[in-house]
Sequence to fold (616 residues):
Amino acid sequence: MAIRIKLRADMEQHYATILSALPNKISSRASLQQRMLAADALLTQEYTKKHHNPCAQVAKLEAILPIVAAQVGTASAYLAKTFLSNDTIFPIVSAPEGDEVASQFNALMSKQADEFQWRRNLLLALVSGMRYPVMGVEATWKVSVVNKPLNRVDPKTATLARGQVARAGFSIRNLDMYNTFWDTSVPPARVSEDGDFAGYVELMTTTLLLRKLQGMGALEGIPTSKVKAIVEAKGIHNYYTPAIRVDTSVEQRGYAEIRFEQIFGKDPAQAKMGNTATTLHEVTTVYMRMLPYVLGLTAKDIKGINPNTIQVFKFVLVGNSVIAHVELRDNMHENLPIFLGQPSEDGLGYQTGSMAEDLASLQNLASSLITGDLQSTRRALADRLIYDASLVREEDINSAEVTKKIPVRNSAYNKGLDAAVKHIPFEDRMAGTRISMAEKLYSFSQLLTGQNTVNQGQFVKGNKTDSQFELVMSNASSRQLLMAFLLEDQFFTPIKETLMSDLLQYQEPIEVLDRKTRQLVKIDPSALRDANYRFEITDGLVDVAKHMSTDVMMTAFQTIAANPQLAAGYNVPQLFSHLMSLLGVRDLDAFILPTQPQQGNPQDGNQPPPVASSVA
Fold:
């Protein structure tokens, strides 16, 4: 799958310097981080908290109307239902004669979707797309070694024996967009195909780092001095940790305070805590297009590949100083395995706003109105007073105990108590109007996103018929369908094509259990390469108005039952399965009984007459 490259010492140091500076060389990265930070603050309702005191917001009576969270959550749920409702995630269809090969594809993809958690990672990416200007995943073929129990006892340990098997498949992993960088000279949707580089920064403990490198094969055949340099390459330089919640400490946001050598060191004196140096390694993974000869490589070094042709390389940099792994990726698709998308793409590139950004002003205004109404209510209940500090103490007049008596100082002797306290009348002429204005702003957010109250699962009274309601809901989902169409072409289709290319190039013959038929399916890579196939269009992209309604469904069933000619001219079981699939019922084909050959009826004119036996 990849050709491991060993760089010269001078070349390694040179490119370590270049790669370490690459994330912060991108001018738009800082502005994107600030935009994402503002969106996360809106969703977590933290943007008005300025104190670590958890009671500060309650004391101020600050309210936040959750417009952004409600609309972003609804849109994310719709996209998840559209793209992730199928067990296979990316189902395959083929001609009738290729059903066996299509079943191999679908069984294999269903297995890999479970092993590599496609649904979870794609769902996180879709949520990021609603929050941030850009969403992204890393999608590439991955090979790892896992332990497998064997059906025998190990005579040395007298326990169940274990073996190691290679687990290979297509991995899809959501990216932390705060710490992802790419070539911004091309639009986000074109980075995988046309960008010069893309990568991301992670934090890892020493043990996790060594495990990852071991899985890549990066530790094989390298001297101990190189392993030591990797372990000692620590420090955080380019990793960005957003400070969203004020009640979360730095350690909880991603930093550790325990040193590796304090636990695993040979010197017992090192086993004491208290050293605040972090043990986390900053690991930068970069995919870059470049000429092999620039790295000093010849055709012999890269298995006969022309060193004067553009190739995709993968670099793993540890601690901004040590290149731990370099490989030339020989994928036939020649794409960078970093795929970016914009659900609200409008042709403005990185100036395109996310749904959360578009709703920010409405939430701020509505929250200000709600807060103002609460402050007015508090003002009306608490009463503002003017008091003589020489007659009444401040702690007595401002006491939180509602039943506490207020003593008067001795200086009030022979003075009227009316002079000690004077009430200031309060009149709020806007009482009752701020809440209605906030509700108007909330309705504006529905107009902006195209998501009505019913889309959010709330009941709305009305006198519409079923057909009228279906028409309204069909029009209500138009804005969501627009995002789904954009994502299908700019984000999911490149991932599908890369998936298929890697699968046809690297898949080995295996046996997979098909969930639908509950039978073992033998995966034949040669048959997969010769097949004619196509990815099925996701059901959620079909307009709701084009789905068969319940009334039409009932009419169809009654007509088929009442008309024998229809029953004779159509395959009724498969027709029934198809009609039910239009309403979202799936996998009915698995319950169709195999057709049995019928015995001929002697009275049937279409059957040959029986042969008469001769009588002697």
About this structure: The chain has 19 helices and 15 strands. The mean pLDDT is 79. The CA atoms of residues 269 and 567 lie 86 Å apart.
